[in-house]
């Protein structure tokens, strides 16, 4: 049974135990309803403490049930029974109380939370809104603007913040259950605040509420759930509670059937499923605690910072003392920035800085458990670095290359022990971007691979395993659609039309603005190297080279695909002239492209390349490709990703 009841004197303790995250499925709802009935029947009871076994309070409704018709008892009805119970219920919250889990806590008369707990209504990230009273109860406990932020923003808040807003009645420094039992013993002496639904809503600053509602609505760009969340909060502020509850439930059930929420549930499970690799079943390795990074440029400094932010000890190797100092400055700058943005607490900052060493002495890597090279993208340079690493690190130390395009099998073949080498392809900025491609060379050992995966987990990254090919999953698909876009330019489209079509589809930015932001010179240098190796396709498009030859390296140069002299990207007639001249030179008659034409072409190229990647075994699941495209390039999450779209159509 996932629900058990124990009585200690005048307090009953209801324990929910449904590993791994105590999700509320039909059995748990039924168990809770039974617990209300049983505790209502207990004589001489003062209060009921509700707590959960395992690492967390309830993480929400069971998402796996969303594809099926809802089965009674329904959560709103169970929560109404808890709210109306004969004695007050006290929620003891540890870990996370999310979605239906927080709604369960909101139906309790009091909430006690461990200081480390997090509380949130993340339904919006699954294309939903709360469906068990969250939008109606929350603004009766916390001010409406904060309620709106939680419901339509979807980000969980820390228990201390929740306590400031009045969402938590008691913050426990130690064990939440123990504190809740002590709290429960005092309920008789407290003023009963009454059932939440009977309280008035709090909207002390309607102007701030409206401003936030506008901001969140604008940010939604094509996604339905944030708009519905704003509407639900507005109803909660204006309608009587029962009507607002009924409207919330209707919207929740409607959104559950919306293709966007099905797509988002696909992404939720795909992101977790991508971390599974059959050959690693049963292979247990500890997460590395001492990590080396070679190369202190943007990528190396980002990787070092990601490791430091995860609490690891990092030694960064550079070639000279000056370069080591520059790397030190870069990393401390990133940590300082993380401090200012509240990513790290002030009391942790000094400890994280103390975990970092930048040096030009290779022997400093002698006790590293994993070393990641992030040096210049050149085969011979990386080969030399790996040889040096093999000589200074112990044989059990795993070596990783952060190459984006080089052949990892060929790199491994240059080593005396190729089984030590794994590919760890980070995305820039490495301390911010969530995705990590784990590249699996032919001869890599299970231990090296599992160590790469353990690092990814320790860094909180979303990992996807990729086989060895040119560009792995992300960059290979990007190269394919980038080429398709360039062909569309020659055939009649403009960069601004391509970008507008992508933004309209839901990308945060079009491919040309993205290239301008990253800088056009690095890709140009790579194209020149490839040309020198005879790797230039017959239908090569010269337009980006012509821009680079004119010094148009993107945003940092003030000009790229766009003109940035005003600070904003402005379409540039000069670029249109370059494009038209290239069309004429190749004898291509330019024709108009609609946004639909553009997106249809981009999608079909992504899907075709994805299919090839699957056929070749570079990715093991279509869903892995969706995870990559969403997290590397901002493919709109609520569409489910290119492969999901292909399979759903
Ligand atoms: C909702 O509540 C609607 C209500 O308003 C209305 C109802 C009427 N269901 O992420 P992890 C699984 S909507 C089913 O790797 P972590 C997950 O798939 C819901 N399964 O761990 C994984 O399984 P596996 C609102 C769930 O420590 C395992 O648990 N709630 C659910 O990194 C471990 O998960 C949310 O959106 C679920 N609700 O993170 C919260 N949650 O081992 C969603 C997790 O087979 N959950 N699983 O791969 C999370 O954000 C994270 O899982 C959490 C733990 C932070 C809790």
Structural domain count: 3
CATH fold-type name of the largest domain = 2-enoyl-CoA Hydratase, Chain A, domain 1
The number of helices is 26
Q: Report the CATH architecture of the largest domain.
A: Alpha-Beta Complex
Helix content: 40-55%
What is the CATH homology-level superfamily of the largest domain? Answer: 2-enoyl-CoA Hydratase, Chain A, domain 1
- Order of strands across the main sheet: 12-11-10-13-14-15-16-17
* Biggest sheet character: 8 strands, mixed
- List the ligand species: (S)-3-Hydroxyhexanoyl-CoA
Strand content: 5-15%
Mean pLDDT: 96
Structural category: alpha/beta
Stretches where pLDDT is under 50 for at least 5 consecutive residues are none
What shape does the CA trace take?
globular
Quick one: CATH class of the largest domain? Answer: Alpha Beta
Count of DSSP strands: 19
Would you write up a description of this structure?
With 649 residues, this protein is α/β, with parallel strands linked by helices. It has 3 domains: 3-257, 2-enoyl-CoA Hydratase, Chain A, domain 1 (Alpha-Beta Complex); 278-466, NAD(P)-binding Rossmann-like Domain (Rossmann fold), CATH 3.40.50.720; 474-617, N-(1-d-carboxylethyl)-l-norvaline Dehydrogenase, domain 2. 47% of the residues lie in helices and 12% in strands. The protein is built from 26 helices and 19 strands. It has an 8-stranded mixed beta sheet with strand order 12-11-10-13-14-15-16-17, with helices on both faces. Strands 1-2-3-4-6-9 form a 6-stranded mixed beta sheet, with helices on both faces. The mean pLDDT is 96. Bound molecules: (S)-3-Hydroxyhexanoyl-CoA. Residues 471-564 form the 3-hydroxyacyl-CoA dehydrogenase C-terminal domain. Its main location: other. One of its GO terms (molecular function) is NAD+ binding. This is Fatty acid oxidation complex subunit alpha. InterPro entries: 3-OHacyl-CoA_DH_NAD-bd, 3HC_DH_C, 6-PGluconate_DH-like_C_sf, ClpP/crotonase-like_dom_sf, Enoyl-CoA_hydra/iso, NAD(P)-bd_dom_sf.
